[in-house]
Each structure stands twice: as C-alpha cells, then as structure tokens.
Amino acid sequence: MSLLGKWLLAPEKSLPPANNPKENYLILIWQHGKHLANRHIKRFSNKMYSPWENCSVQNCILSYEDKDLHQAHAVIFHVQFMLHASNMPLRSRVDQRWIILMDESPMYLLSSSQETSNYDGLFNWTMTYRMNSDVPVPYGRTLKKESINFQYYPWISKPFWKTNMMSSKTKLLAVMISHCDSKNQRLKYVEALKSLLQDRLEIIGHCMNGNSTVCPYHFTKDCSVLSSYKFYLSFENSNCREYITEKVFWNAFHKYAVPIIMGAPLEDCQRLLPPSSYLHVDNFHNANMLVKYLHYLDRDNERYLKYHEWRDNYILLNEHGYFGSASKHYCRVCEALNYNPNTVKVYKKLDNFWNKDRDCISLL
Q: Cβ distance 69 to 26 under 8 Å?
C-alpha cells in the first residue's frame, strides 16, 4: 500500500506528518474540470459542495483554467477522456505533480486506439481506487468505529439493523445494470439466477428486459427501492484487483442489503470489507448452489442477521460522489500534496502499475 492507502484504512486520527503545513497548493483539473464537477463538486445536484468538506487539510485551491498549467502544483489528467497521449500539454516544471486519474478498471481504461505505454514517462502519481496508488480514491472504505469522529458521522450510532430493519426487507434480491457489456460474463450469471428465482430477482435498468422506470436516473439519483431487498447483486463489469465500486458500498451496504460480489477477488474483499458482511460468487460452485443458500438465509432471520453484525464494530464510508454521497477525490489530492514524500517520482512504465493482463481476469 501507499502511505495514504495505509492511512485511509487506519484510525482517522492518526494523521501523517505534513510536508509544509503553511504552503498553499494549486490543483489544476486539466480540460475536464467543469464536467467532473458534476460528480466531485455538485454530487449530481444543483448545489455546490466544498471539496475540502471534512478534509484533513484545507490549504488547496482548485482550478479548471488551462492557463494555470505552469503555476499549478499538481495537474490531474482524467485519462478516460483523453483521445491520445499526443494531446498532453508541454511540461515546464519538474517539481509539478502530473497525476493520472483512473476510476474504471484496467479493462475499460483506454480506447481501442491507445495503449498504456503511450503514457510512459509522463506521470508522477497515480490516482485510482486501489490502495497502492499515490492518491488512493476508493469508492468506499471500512473503518473500525473506535477510530471514527462521531461529530462528522452522527448516523453511525443508530442501531437500525437491530430494531426495525427486517420490517423493511420485503423482497429477496435485486440488481441494477444499465451497461450491458462486460468482461466477466456477469449477465450470463444473472440469467442463470433469474431462471432459478423468477420474480424473486428483480432486474433494474436497461439490460435483460429490466425495469427501467423504477430508478431512471442510474447513479445521479438515489434508488430508494433497493432498501426493500435482503440481498443485492454487486456484479462489476470486470474482475480486477480491488475493483469494488458503489455497487457494494452504496447499492448494498448503504441500503442494509447483503452484497453478492462478482468483481474483485475474494482475498481483496476479505482485506477491504467488514468480516462476514457479504457473499462472493467464488464461494459457490454455480448459480444453483448460491440460490439454495439464499433460500436458506431467507428462511432464517437469525442466520441472515449474522451478515449485519459487523455494523456494531465497523462503519462503511461512501466517498464516490454518486447518489448524493460525498466525493473525496480532490481532498485526497490535497492530502497527497501535504503528506506524500517530496522526492521526484516518474512512472517510466505505466504498465508495471496498471496492467489488465496481470490485474484482471477475462472470461470472454
């Protein structure tokens, strides 16, 4: 893990030492700042939120103006919006941090006309959901309650899951999918489950004749109906290291549903998620075995609630900017400028860090 990665999973009060706490930093979002603001500043609303809200540092300024390129301390390049590496600007400062931002898995990072090697030698820091990134921006994270400042998270102490949670769990299983392509054959698995469960599995979205009206806004608006389900299919579009998205942190955990995970390998889930809080498809020989276990838990509330006992000791923080949740992307960059080592670092071979053949499993 990187320095920040270790800190994000440790008690929040244990701040790393700051490099120069009196210095102010300018962060430039190259060319796509206004578009990215919909998620990271506005949270898909009409309201502007401070990117430094509940941030451990407050000494950074954001810019969307390309003219600030030469004076910025850090420049963020969202590589999925880059048509080609030849569109990168010229660099004039060796002390400037060029940061490559990658929110999707390595399977969906670049267009077919690009290769990771096109960006060799350009970037100083990586900014991804993985905890070994120089600027880790996970979709969510797990912390022990003893490390939390309850002033910022007043809802944590509510024992909802012990009192009236079960009264709201009137349905068995749901999945919300609107992107029908994938690298892991998740739709085939959903089809198998649907044939076994029939109307006890509700498909929400535009795939597989799903219900596209109940939650029409996808990730820009909350989907409150998900609170009715005991389980949620947190099926990612690719099976890659640490690729655990809002499908787990929001659609499942935040809705008091037990996630059934396809995506990150089991060992990553064991390391990054609360213990005994989820099911993983790798633990079942096939869809039929999974369905039998779901029926077993559905008949036994005491057994089912075992998958919520983690809530007594852990808290899940949603930090992705979807469904109205807070995005911590720009806060993390400011923290990296304050806490990361000042030594010069360059990714001469980006493929050594971000590699779909090494870090992902393709089932096509």
A: no
Closest Cα partner for 130 from 320, 1, 278?
1
Q: Residue 64: what pLDDT?
A: 97
**Residue among 26, 23, 24, 51 nearest 37 (CA):** 51
H/E run at residue 240: strand 239-240
Q: For residue 257, give Cα distances in angstroms to 48, 90, 264, 305, 330.
A: 30, 48, 19, 10, 29
| Predicted TM-score of the model (pTM) | 0.93
Q: Please indicate, yes or no, whether residues 88 and 197 belong to a single structural domain of this protein.
A: no
| 291-296 long-range Cβ contacts below 8 angstroms, 24+ apart | 291/193, 291/196, 291/197, 294/172, 294/173, 294/197, 294/231
CA distance 211 to 204: 5
CA atoms within 13 A of residue 52's CA, in its CB half-sphere = 11
Run of H or E including 29: strand 25-29
Total tally of structural domains belonging to the chain: 2
Per-residue pLDDT reduced to its tens digit, 61-98: 999 999 999 999 999 999 888 878 888 999 988 899 99
For residues 12 and 337, the model is more confident at 337
What is the domain-level CATH number for residue 286? 3.40.50.11660
Residue 364 inside a domain? The answer is: no
